[in-house]
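Researcher: For the record, we're logging two predictions in this thread. I'll number them. Prediction 1 follows.
Model: Prediction 1, sequence and structure:
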Amino acid sequence: MFHLGIADSCQLLAQTIAGIFTLCDTTFDVYVNKISGGILQLGWIASGPLTFLLAVNRLFSVWYPISSDTDTLSWPYKVVLFIAWVAGFLFFASYMTPYSAVLYFPDIFAWSYDDGPWSDAISQCELYGMFVLLTLCGVIYVIIFARMYRFRKNMNQSSRELRILVQAVIISGYTSSCLITWHTYQYFLPDTKMTQFALNLMNIINPAINPVLYLSLNP
């Protein structure tokens, strides 16, 4: 959750800068825009493996409830954490090149890839990589709920574990909806300024989901 919070903070920082761009009706400088988009995507890309790691953590918690409080930062977890941030920084580095960038456009209230020669390929890598991870999360949560239902009489899940499970499922589901709508909205929504605004609002809400759920489910 801590690392997911850092990824969320990166996205919120970029969205805050985008808010300033919108209020001032300018991005000030192309490099400020590129760096802001890179920070946004750094947090977004890192959140994929981190969300998957959270799902795996919940799976082990349900499967082995007795050992759920042991050190979860064993080497496999550390490897996934390392991969998450390496992937995020690799995408960030690609956005700092002249060949690709994610830029904010104040006139349509939205972030978008530029028309650089690498942008399409990087966009597809983002889409399919995140899609695979979030699909795996969905499969894991189906397995978790199936096991909980099957052994509901014998399982003694604490209220804390159940709250974390609910929180994890909502985070995974909402992140999936953001990914799908951002990359495929043109197939089922009109390409208007209000559509772009609504999609960006979804992305603004996404990094806020984690702390809101934490405060709501852990009074």
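Researcher: Logged. Prediction 2.
Model: Prediction 2, sequence and structure:
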Amino acid sequence: MLDDRTTTRTDLDTLKVRVWTPKSNRYGWSSYLGDAVAGPDVSPYAAAARREDLTGLPPAWIGVGTLDLFHDEDVEYARRLSDSGVPCDLDVVPGAFHGFDFVFPKAEVSREFWRRQARALEGAL
């Protein structure tokens, strides 16, 4: 959840996503931001994608599946970080939905996803 403005994207309503749906996304953001959701006054501290200048942010690891509701905003944010000179590892898992690694924790793809996440954290610390 990086961009509250995704709540206004009706094209996401047609996606066949699991776990975190467009309805869940709207509920989550409106619970967090109330009536301000998708409006002009949302702080970049509340919605990271709202920040215009990303220079100077710490390195990031972003992991997302191609069937995740957050795929587009995660890929875009990773691009913006990289364009701003912020080291960013983007880990895109083909065919994975939001939370796949918790739903199928014993699957090799989930285990590898967690290993890559742990390596990124190890490298940062």
